[in-house]
Specification:
alpha+beta; about 475 residues; single chain; 9 strands; two-stranded antiparallel sheet
């Protein structure tokens, strides 16, 4: 599999290079670039995290909170029942949804969390106040209300986790959540007690019982945290070294663009899945060969088919692929394309809102309980060969007319007297290709002169198909 920047595999120990104090040494380049990248990320995260809307549920109705803690969707009107307060809460909830959608369009995801408890401590002379325990939550517009659904799992606020690590403590949010969940479900008071015990090492640590919904985790926070790791982990990636300015890494990554193949592929050798045009096959083959490529797909084109073909080819060759899109709709489109082709079993669609554990567990259980007999591969190949014999791949005709030419042809047809009429003609592929190659014959047929088909009955593929017309023959 192609090495990636997410790889954490230990590289083979090479011979120790001679120490160098010059600025062109790879270690110096990666270390300097890492500091610049993290500084820029911190600035962007701070600028994007100001003036974000929040929704307080501290005074919510106990009946609605009980339903929320059981991870059942609940309407906001059941949590806040006073009309004036409900109106303000709905406005804030819709603002949170809008900010989440804006982040999702820019970063691919816009997670919303329910902050349980507000933690405060001192970092030197500065006081830090953040939500303590974060649980994923989903807000959905529903008529004139907002539906709130609490997700599984929990995590500590990034600022709180970093402060605990600086004091040599590794506290997991799921551990706090497990301590706060008992036979009667989740209890916020037990969560506050567990947080006080786990974070007692922080100077002047305090936590108060509070419930706030908001965007507390920036999508780029995980990337900023990864840059805090040891610089040697980043040096293992050739792409990172090239981005940092290492000329040797850039030269190693530079490669020639594959030569396009305009011909239709052999059905026994084509890669991917689905009926792709040669340009799309070029992209799938380049990705399958292990190249790092950018695929420029025109706007409003069928990009889901290309992504689905790349994912299917990776699954067919025993590789694992992580598909990260800039919009949830693109991921859904690729997943839907694979499902339409009967390949939904090779994909696990996981996002911050779906119940991934339950879905994956059900699919794994169904796969293990499937006792249907395995189809003989030889019989499948024989069926495929029969299909190929009966339905050969005909060469695709590249259109020769441009838009102005087509417009002028339509204008000429509309001026014809008598006006042209269309007739349904059943014919075989080869005569149809011959007509398409002769514009004059095609225009005569459009004007009303019906071309004579090769046979009166509907065409059938196979050895009995009519041969192509001889060169120079006139179709009438």
């Amino acid at each position: 599999m192609v090495p990636s920047i997410f790889s954490r595999r230990s590289a083979p120990e090479p011979e120790a290079p001679e120490a160098s104090s010059t600025s062109t040494h790879p270690t110096t380049l990666v270390g300097s670039a890492r500091e610049k990248w993290r500084s820029r990320l911190d600035q962007d995260i701070a600028a994007d995290s100001t003036s974000l809307p929040t929704l307080s549920l501290s005074g919510a109705h106990p009946g609605g909170l009980a339903q929320l803690y059981t991870e059942h969707p609940v309407r906001l009107s059941l949590l806040i029942r006073e009309p004036i307060a409900l109106g303000r809460a709905l406005e804030r909830a819709r603002s949170i949804i809008a900010c989440s959608e804006q982040r999702a369009s820019a970063h691919g995801t816009g997670p919303i969390h329910l902050g349980i408890g507000t933690a405060s401590w001192h970092n030197g002379t500065d006081a830090v106040t953040v939500p303590a325990l974060l649980r994923p939550v989903r807000l959905v517009r529903r008529d004139d209300d907002v539906l709130i659904a609490l997700g599984r799992g929990g995590l500590l606020a990034p600022e709180l986790s970093e402060a605990l690590r600086s004091h040599g403590l590794d506290v997991d949010g799921d551990t706090i959540l497990a301590q706060a969940s008992g036979a009667h479900g989740f209890s916020s008071s037990q969560a506050m007690a567990a947080l006080r015990e786990a974070c007692a090492a922080l100077p002047r640590f305090e936590v108060r019982d509070d419930l706030v919904i908001g965007l507390f985790c920036h999508p780029a926070g995980a990337l900023a945290a990864s840059l805090a790791e040891d610089v040697t982990a980043l040096e293992d990636s050739q792409v990172i070294r090239a981005l940092a300015g290492d000329q040797d890494a850039r030269n190693d990554l530079r490669s020639e663009v594959p030569v396009p193949n305009p011909a239709d592929r052999d059905p026994w050798a084509e890669k991917g899945v689905g009926d792709l045009i040669p340009l799309q096959q070029d992209a799938v083959e380049a990705a399958s060969d292990g190249r790092s490529v950018f695929i420029d797909i025109p706007a409003h084109s069928d990009d889901a088919s290309v992504v689905a073909a790349i994912l299917a080819d990776a699954a067919a060759t025993g590789r694992s692929v992580l598909h990260v899109s800039t919009s949830p709709s693109r991921s859904i489109a690729a997943y839907t394309r694979l499902a339409d082709l009967g390949l939904a079993d090779i994909v696990a669609n996981i996002d911050s809102y779906s119940d991934a554990r339950k879905t994956l567990a059900a699919r794994v259980s169904a796969a293990m309980e499937d006792t249907s007999p395995v189809v003989d591969q030889a019989s499948v190949d024989e069926i495929a060969r029969a299909c190929v014999r009966c339905a050969p791949h005909w060469p695709r005709m590249r259109p020769r007319s441009t838009s102005p030419t087509a417009a002028s042809a339509c204008a000429r047809l509309t001026r014809c007297v008598p006006s042209p009429t269309s007739r349904a003609v059943r014919t075989r592929p080869r005569p149809a290709c011959a007509w398409a190659k002769r514009p004059s014959t095609t225009s005569r047929s459009i004007r009303g002169e019906r071309p004579r088909p090769c046979c009166a009955r509907p065409w059938r593929l196979g050895p009995s198909a009519c041969p192509p017309p001889p060169r120079g023959a006139t179709l009438s």
